[in-house]
Amino acid sequence: MPIQIRFNDVDKFGHVNNTVYFQFYDTAKTDYFAMVCKGVDWERVAIVVVKVEAEFVAQIKAGDHIAARTRTTKIGNKSFHLEQDIIDTDTREVKCRCLSVMVLYDLTTHQSIPFPAAWRQAICEYDSIQ
Description:
The chain is of the alpha+beta class. The protein is built from 2 helices and 6 strands; from the N terminus they run βαβββββα. The longest helix has 19 residues, at 18-36. The relative contact order is 0.22.
C-alpha cells in the first residue's frame, strides 16, 4: 500500500519522526483488513494491539517514496501476529519492520472473541498460511 508522507510527518532533522511510523502501520492495517476480511461490522468488532515491536532500519526522508507491506504470520484462537514493513518503493530497501500481536475484541460485551472461521480462511488464503 503506497504511503503519502505529509509535511507534518517530517521533523526538524529532515526525516520522518519515529512516532509517525505507527500511523503508517495503522493506515496499512486498515487497508489490509478492508481488503482481506470483507463485510466486518466494525461497530461491533475491534482489533486491539496488545504488543508491538518496531525495528528502525533506515531513515525515511521527506522526498522518499514509500509503501507498507502487511501480512499475517500466525493465527491463534483469539489473537494473531501481524508483520509489517515500510519499504522504499524506488530502492526496495526496508526502512522499518514492525511485529504486532493483536486480539479480536467484541465492543458490545467488552471481551476478547474467538477468531471467526471466515476471517481465518480469508487470511490464510491471502497470505498463504498453512
